[in-house]
Amino acid sequence: MGMIASSYGTIQSVKALRDEDLRSELSSVHVPTLLLHGTEDQICPYDFALHLLEKLPNAQLLPFEESGHGVFHDEREKFNRVIVDFLKHSLI
């Protein structure tokens, strides 16, 4: 069974994505951050991930060469492996 979102929740999420600009606050994030981004993403271009990597002080970027926007779907095994590895090393 997949996740189901209410129409109200979906609309409010899209409005927040449209209206919120938090780029100026990225440098204040000091927790380990793993950026997973498909190099073939047509919705959020890969350059967005490069911008985040530059602005987030404690980030690492892992490109998914065979993925578009849905890295968790396109490269499921790799996605799961890198998430588990990141959590193991971040929680030490």
Automatic annotation (TrEMBL):
Organism for this UniProt entry: Niallia endozanthoxylica
Key word Phosphoprotein present: no
Protein name per Swiss-Prot or TrEMBL: Alpha/beta hydrolase
Peptidase S33 tripeptidyl aminopeptidase-like C-terminal domain sequence ranges: 25-88
One MF term in the entry's GO annotations: hydrolase activity
GO cellular component terms given for this protein: membrane
Key words of the record: Hydrolase
